[in-house]
Structure formats: C-alpha cells, structure tokens
Amino acid sequence: MSFNEAKEHAPGHLHQIFADPYSAFDNLSAERQLHLRVALQALVGKPLANGRLTLRVIHGWENGGFEPADLVHSDYRIASLDDLARVSADHQRAIDSAAPLPRDNASLLAQPLADAISAAEAKGQVLDEETCTIPARWPAFDRGLTLYTFFKVYHRLTYGEDESYRSIQCETAEGSREIHEFHLEEGEFAVVRPTNDATGDSVLVLHVSQLEPVRMLLEACRS
Q1: Checking DSSP bridges between strand 165-172 and strand 175-184, what pairing results, if any?
Q2: Closest C-alpha among 122, 178, 171, 106 to residue 145
C-alpha cells in the first residue's frame, strides 16, 4: 500500500494566496473577514461562476455513530447561491415535517470500502476483521488511506473539530485532489478541488445542519 495516497496538512491552493493559511482564519487575526472573502471566492465563488461546483449534503451519522453504511448523502449541481438556498429550504421542510431527507443511491464509504477490500483479497492479501472494520486500520490495503482520509473529513464535518482550517492532498478515483476543511464559528464545510488548478469539478461538502449557516456565510462574503 502506498502512503502517498493522502497527506494531511499538505500545501494547497490557499498557500499560494496566504503566507500562513492555518492562522488566516483564526479569530485573533485582524484581517480574518477579508481572508474569508478571498478564500471563499477562490474555493467556492470561482467554480460556482464557472458551472464547476457540486454541493454534497451528508447525514446519517448520529449520537457518535460512524458506520460507513450509515453515512448517506445527496449531490446537487449548483450554479448560484440561489440554488444553494433552494436546497437548504428543501431540507429544512423535510426536517420540519419529519420526512426522510434526500439521499442518493451511491455510497460514499461503504461500497468503495467493500471494493477495496475485495481487490486486496483478490491479490492475495489476508485481512482480518479489525482491519476491515476499524477505519484507522484501512491504510493496510490499497485505497484504504484515501478512504480513511475522507472518513475523517466526514466525521469532523458531522461531529465538529477544534482546528479552524486544514489542507489535505489526496488521490481519488477522479485524480489528485485538495481538500480544504473549515471549522469556523460561522459554519463548517470542506471544499474538494483539483490540485494545481487542473481541470475538473469542485465539491462543497457539508453536514445537513450546516446548510443555512454556510449559505449565510457565503452570502456575507459575497456582499
């Protein structure tokens, strides 16, 4: 297995803009609001304007649970903040009426994990139950580190994180990607984008509870 599949705290696009992205969004930063505007325009505003942004809303993990099969999502191609507002309103109506939240059939973790385990076993690798079921053990097989990296991102977006920002590089089925993860008082979200300005779509990932806070943050940073 290659440990080059993913690397946390790796330089990314914001390192080309800020001398120290890890302190740029800290509450003690005098220019924090300006930094947020610049970062969100680069990571969200640009692909949004170019028709290159997908919104991914995750849910399903509750009360400390983190089973891969329980994590579900819905993806939306959005071209404006009005589109984001409509998605937010649709989810809020479902919550208010106790209706099921929208979900796609595709699996974020469970099926890719099963496929990676099957591929490893087909190559003759013997994997015990703990290696297959404990996320921290997934790097023992190919594509496992990538899955573990995204698992941690989804877990932090669901349950919170003290660190306000982190930059991750990760190899995915679509190619090399940067993950820019934010945990701000205004909202929590991540942006997955192609590395080095390569062509491809960006994905704005957030927990369903963060739809409205992140929408308001983006509106504030646009005005």
Answers
A1: antiparallel
A2: 171
Whole-model pTM over 0.70: yes
Which residues, 6 or more positions from 130, have their beta carbon under 8 angstroms from its beta carbon? 137
**Structure token pair of residue 60:** 């399903």
DSSP state of 197: G
Share of the chain above pLDDT 70, in %: 98
> 176 — phi, psi (to 5°)?
-70, 135
Cα distance between residue 102 and residue 91, in whole Å: 7
Q: What is the DSSP string of 14-41?
A: GGGT-S-HHHHTSTT-TTHHHHHHHHHI
Distance (Å, rounded) from C-alpha 124 to C-alpha 120?
7
Share of the chain above pLDDT 90, in %: 91
Lookup result for tokens 């924090």? 32
